[in-house]
């Protein structure tokens, strides 16, 4: 959770750092693909049987296996899968009999919109709460914010979502209980329908981000350079705005990737809870129907998104922190 | 003279930890007049930083000023509102403290941080503030200032950062400047540069100065008056020269005595150490706080705390000097209250000025070093990613011998120690032990080498496994190293008793932990013990105990030491031979007496001048400094590089990737471009005393034929200079 | 010499007091006391629910389906007329077995990996950390679902996969602690005595990295409850007719417009358990790091 804040360590200046950091992406993705392949393609044994069920004949199962390529050697299968994934040639879903790409393409926009609405709500609120809390460690306000944040952090999305659904949707009728606006609605209506599911995504992210901001603020407030700035006789707003906040909030940027990880997990839950046609719902449906190729491709896609976002976050950090930007090369 | 600039009276400060208050400062009275520099000296934990923070009203949240008065230039600091306090800080009083590494905001340029002071105290516009910032940076020796304005703190060296902090503190000319350990953590030569700077700023920029340090030497250089703080009390206060020549308080006397003097050698004397450790704030004794450790203490000392009474030295010459300075009349013998702002001499002791103990205790002489070579290091080289750890290091340690390896931080001395110990193997070179080659990794060495070659590490706080009792740690060492002494006897040899054996690290003081580490190293009768800065993080009074112990163990067992230190006084006391390392290379080596007597390598010269400045220490610390410059070729004061101002840009060891002399960039007696292009030759001005330098002054007895193994060619051209 | 002994005796007392102090400190914190009481309460319920539940949890009463909360059924009845209170009490047992099992397994495996990687560094460290990086790249829930979908749904697989997702995170924490600890001088001393690597790892390092491991255990416990409940909600955990909380929410959510009590009760139960365990973990972390 409050994973040690990662601070990229510079060895050979910014350019070297960025290059090495970028090289890490394909390497990690390669290891991910091995893990995913091992989990998804090796173990199940009889894919055809799993898809066709117990009543199919052995011949039917065998034909399906051959059709899906499961009779070929492992290395060949891995190679075909990886190259296919990289070139965008993702094949068909054996269960739905449609190209996996079109399945994903039809849903990823929905998920991104939902995620964006949640992020727009979460970021300002949690940074504000975290900074307020971190400036007065141990105060009543800090304790209240900290304990609430912690409680939100631990609450599974489907639990918070259920409460929101029952209280805001069913009992108070403030917001629609379905996530999807009627077909043909404008953006405003769509956002109105998305508000409840987005709010259900908020708690965990809010808990996490506010605690990060609080920790950074409280820790930086103790730093000797803050004492220097205070003893110089600078006004408090200058000490806070110029000296404290840049150092305090920079590390929060690097945990954006962790946020993405939480967000993806949350999307699966919330899309299932609200029956919203996003990529998370597709993922879970594929799991329940044993659509392993679709599962594997979505997993790879999510891992790639995660890696690229954390790469961008780390590069952003490096650009904003002069200690890395101007490190001697 | 108007009233004092700083007037602290009867100050009492306490810290509350887990709802238990503990008084850390009690009845502290300090005054500083205009133009006066006052030193506050004390060992760690005595409350000296608390005093500084109290004056700035910047105590941590759990600290409370319980009683007393603090006034700066007539302003009652304790009565200021928050708003007034903000305007007052930085403009009326400013503070510079330890640890320049983290005292500047990492995300703002130096220029922005200095300019802020002008913008918010004088309302200067952005451009004018930047101009003013450039001016003050030039004043503190950061020239040309334009170059520094746009840099971030991480792009500066430690010494440069501290100059920036000083510039910010002095920017709008505060009446009072507080320096809290401003040079601790900096190398001796950098420290000397900062002190020179402060000296040059006195008068024009600095009015009243409060200088807080644990280092008596620094006080003698910078201050007019001294206050000795112990366990939250001022024990002695008076003119620096008087107090340090004829200390009135037994504690001051003991502190002065336990630093090794120039003539002290481990072979003949032990250092007069102060037994025990200071009381903790939570359990202060009812009487004198020093009574428990005092050789003069009587029952009266233990029952009531003595008042801070006026004092005049019993020594006739000191009285004379007071008379000559026209100060004698201000304080009657044991008489009335002290007048603030004058050079009164005050001592909190009922037996002030009585001689504490006789001359330093003699030590049993160790057997003289033999000619049998124990350790022979040849061409030791280690490179890290882009830095040279050490380069072509040659060292020889004989049986019963102490070799002192001297260098500043980053010089490579710890790299050498860890390579010899087998903890971080070198990339090249050979280590021979009893004339047979030694594996690089300790795990690959024979068992009896592990037994014979041990290490006493630097940090008393991590040297012992915190989860285990000292007895268990020693028992394991005895077992693994096949020691012949039972644990209690081993402990007794380092003056630890059964009670200590049952303790864990956090229950012991720093000195006790270091003794346990020494016992652990001696568990298997080692032949050579590497001591890596074993006393550098201990208070002076504790240092002496450890140095005595090392000397005793050598006398009893004939153990050899490779003693690594940045402290020349300590090395001079213990070592038979000395090697000076800079930028990963040995620049000078030889018998200790010859190295300290000179002629010396310019770097050694710089170190010595920085450590023992001529005249500054007075009789208390005569030092060897100032005596000899390298032969006839000496140039000005080595500490100052440029024109008048210390050369701040080159005040720390540079990158070690050089083809010529590693010291060329800082060398005050640089011969010419040859220093950068050609590796310097080894010269031998006296038999066994070797100096690696191009300077012709050493060329008298040049040693040809010594070929550094890293491919350097030694050029010993007669017309070299 | 008396001075030393006096000073040291007081230090020894302070040392012992510190160990006791952690518990006393925790007992003075209302957040700790309340959350510990709730968590402990659920442990009692998980064991004693057969005594506490007013009805057998799977007693079906089709005629009383969708009963509102009443005196007979304090929390109402579900779509089969089963007593919601009884099912909620009984539903505690599955998560309170699966979550601690996953957390313990994760911490055990993660500690072993972290110790090895941190002590040996070099290639061992690099390989272990690359694998860890890769596992962390896949969001935990996604990995869990992928494995449960391909290996088949079983509670053993569920425990294994949740533990496998957490173990890399634990190993990172342990590794970081070991990397800091192994730079300390007492480790050098042990190496100079030529102690075997296993001795240094187990006898010298492990006791000194126990506090972060303890903290990991308490934090992972909260996350294990989170993950196990979510997977049950996906239908990948205990199967019908288990009274498991997550499963009940996922089945009951379709009746939310007319009978919200069916999902509110188990949701509140999960909420109270997971929040109390999370706060408990954080309180222990704060006390240990104090």
List the keywords.
heterotrimer, A: 329 residues, mainly alpha, MetI-like fold, 0% strand, globular, disordered N terminus, B: 721 residues, alpha/beta, Rossmann fold, 5 domains, 8-stranded mixed beta sheet, 23 helices
Description of the structure:
The complex is a heterotrimer of chains A (329), B (721) and C (290). Chain A has 14 helices and no strands. Chain A is mainly α. The radius of gyration of chain A is 24 Å and the shape is globular. Residues 1-11 of chain A have low confidence and may be disordered. Chain B is α/β, with parallel strands linked by helices and 721 residues long. Chain B folds into five domains: 1-92 and 175-223, P-loop containing nucleotide triphosphate hydrolases (Rossmann fold, 3-Layer(aba) Sandwich); 103-173; 255-349, no CATH class; 373-579, 3-Layer(aba) Sandwich (Rossmann fold); 598-716, no CATH class. Helices cover 28% and strands 20% of the residues of chain B. In chain B, strands 6-7-8-3-9-10-12-11 form an eight-stranded mixed beta sheet, with helices on both faces. An eight-stranded mixed beta sheet of chain B has the order 18-19-20-15-21-22-24-23, with helices on both faces. The relative contact order of chain B is 0.09. With 290 residues, chain C is mainly α. Chain C is 75% helix and 0% strand. Chain C has helices at 2-27, 30-52, 84-90, 92-120, 122-137, 140-151, 155-181, 185-192, 197-205, 210-233, 245-252, 261-289. Chain C starts with a helix and ends with a helix. Residues 1-17 of chain C have low confidence and may be disordered. Chain B binds chain C through residues 18, 275-277, 279-280, 282-283, 292-293, 421-423, 442-443, 445, 447, 450, 453-455, 457-459, 462-468, 473, 476-477, 480-481, 499-500, 503-504, 506-509, 512, 517, 520-521, and chain C through 1-12, 14-15, 21, 184-186, 188-189, 191-195, 204, 207-208.
